[in-house]
Amino acid sequence: MLQSKIAGIGYYVPKNVYTNQDLTRFMDTSDEWIQERTGIKERRYADRIGETTTTMAIEASKIAIERAGTTAQDIDFIIFATLSPDYYFPGCGVLLQREMGMGEIGALDIRNQCSGFVYALSIADQFIKTGMYKNILVVGSEKHSFALDYSTRGRGVSVIFGDGAGAVVLQPTTEEGKGILSTHLHSDGAEAEKLAMYYPGASGGIWLDNKPEWPEQELGGMLMTKEMLEDGTAFPYMDGQAVFKKAVVKFPEVIGEALAKNNLTPADINLLVPHQANLRIAQFVQKTLRLRDDQVFNNIQRYGNTTAASVPIALCEAWEEGKIKDGDLVCLAAFGAGFTWGSALIRW
Ligand code: UT7
């Protein structure tokens, strides 16, 4: 029976550091407020020009591929998770394929926001288990900084997010009990509009309670207009409290589901790597599951919330710091827009 193992892992974050204090130049906020509510001290922003979701993904992928002892030309499938693609379409997968000189392999882009990487890993796991592919590149990358409202109006959303990329190469293993043990994916669209970027989109706003009345609605809402920028509807919307409330329930639930499936308990986890949504959420989850500090890895303090990139960046940093050893039980878990959530249990 084939199982999938993470054969190589890498991450990349842009060099530009923006501290909480730096953000006070643009909006009415404070280091104290941001740290108290989110744990974040600083985040990275990509260069405005020249650095994109794809270029960051390439840097992370190069490291993952090298550590897997393989080459870009040996990769036989790409799964790219992002909510901030270089183009509305096509997705970043084909850009990465082209720029890395890969063969004419399949490239799948997925849009599951903060759970994007866990969803991508689960898809890759199925392809490896069936023997269809042998070297899958799974990427999570985000350039949030291009579309955040840096005025005081947007402070509840913009202070949280940062840019970066993480990647893994998944390969088959026949080693008994090693690799990805199981993955668990969920969604509930009941609160889809509570964390979303509505435009540009083809709906013309029909799902929204307070549909703005611009003349452009006649065009189906596809266009980004001056009015949208002025009234803030062009930017991501988040009902932070609704997200928080759901996240603190669904994180423990989906971690518990993964443990139960494998007849394990929280005490068996060597390292939980939760999506870095908010340090307070991670701490709540830790407390609920009664995990010690050394059983949970967080790095949101330095990078903010990098959505699809946060799990692979954190996983890679933890591994580089020697916090993941051969035979360890590693749990990945994520929750985000959609809502979507998921977990993966890995015997390293
Ligand atoms: O990956 C999934 C993505 N999202 C999340 O995980 C987010 C989950 N939610 C959260 O992390 C929190 O809800 C936030 C950190 C986003 C917000 O914290 P909160 O405790 O829910 O604050 P709030 O939105 O209820 O706002 C409280 C006050 C408001 O002022 P008033 O109305 O009480 O006067 C806000 O205007 O804090 C104000 N505020 C800020 N003040 C300074 C909101 N953002 C800021 C800010 N700096 N950046």
Approximately how much helix is present in the residues?
A: 25-40%
Measured distance between first and last alpha carbons: 17 Å
So how many helices?
Answer: 11
Report the CATH topology name of the largest domain. Answer: Peroxisomal Thiolase, Chain A, domain 1
Taking Cα atoms only, what radius of gyration do you get, to the nearest Å?
Answer: 20 Å
**Number of individual domains:** 2
What is the CATH architecture annotation of the largest domain? 3-Layer(aba) Sandwich
The low-confidence parts are none
Provide the residue-averaged pLDDT: 95
The fraction of residues in strands falls at 15-25%
Broad CATH class of the largest domain: Alpha Beta
- Strand order in space, largest sheet: 1-7-6-4-5
Q: Structural class, from helix and strand content?
A: alpha/beta
Tell me what you see in this structure.
There is one protein chain. By secondary structure, the chain is of the alpha/beta class. It folds into 2 domains: 3-173, Thiolase/Chalcone synthase (Peroxisomal Thiolase, Chain A, domain 1, 3-Layer(aba) Sandwich), CATH 3.40.47.10; 179-192 and 238-299 and 307-347, Thiolase/Chalcone synthase (Peroxisomal Thiolase, Chain A, domain 1). The chain contains 11 helices and 13 strands. β4 (77-81), α4 (92-99) and β5 form a beta-alpha-beta unit. The model has no long low-confidence stretch (mean pLDDT 95). The protein binds oxa(dethia)-CoA. The site of oxa(dethia)-CoA has 21 residues, from α2, α6 and α8.
